[in-house]
Design brief:
- It is a single chain.
- By secondary structure, the chain is mainly alpha-helical.
- It has a domain of 79 residues: Cytochrome Bc1 Complex, Chain D, domain 2 (Orthogonal Bundle), CATH 1.10.760.10.
- It is built from four helices and two strands, in the order H-H-H-E-E-H.
- Strand 1 and strand 2 form a beta hairpin.
- It starts with a helix and ends in a 6-residue tail after the last helix.
Length: 121
């Protein structure tokens, strides 16, 4: 085999390897990004009217800030998802509005925002 054929063969193998890496490792990253964007969109459509940047325009102590979530025993995405569906206190649930699984997506997004002090970038 000539050196140009070896070089070409090497490039084809490298390209094949990169494609495999994208298939095996790129898809979860892509689906995570899509889910994260979906969480933000669900929040904007259904929650942001009262919970602007994680606050609460109705009841100041019932924010989505990490300290308030922990103080109120809402310190995990599963509990937040349950509230998104069924509501709590003055807040109505969105069970009739959210599609299946969207409560989990928005709850995860809210939890992530709370962990980052609602600093979006």
């Amino acid at each position: 085999m000539g050196s140009s054929k070896v070089f070409k063969y090497f490039h084809l193998m490298l390209l094949a390897w990169l494609i495999l890496m994208i298939i095996f490792f790129g898809l979860p990253i892509t689906s995570f990004a899509i889910e994260r964007n979906a969480g933000e969109e669900i929040f904007q459509n259904h929650c942001s009217g009262c919970h602007i940047k994680g606050g609460n325009i109705i009841r100041r102590g019932k924010t989505l800030k990490l300290s308030a979530l922990k103080r109120n025993g809402l310190d995990n995405p599963e509990v937040i998802a349950e509230i998104a569906l069924k509501g709590i206190g003055n807040m109505d649930g969105y069970e009739k509005v959210l599609k299946e699984g969207e409560e989990q997506i928005v709850a995860q997004w809210i939890w992530e925002q709370a962990q980052n002090a609602w600093i979006q970038g």
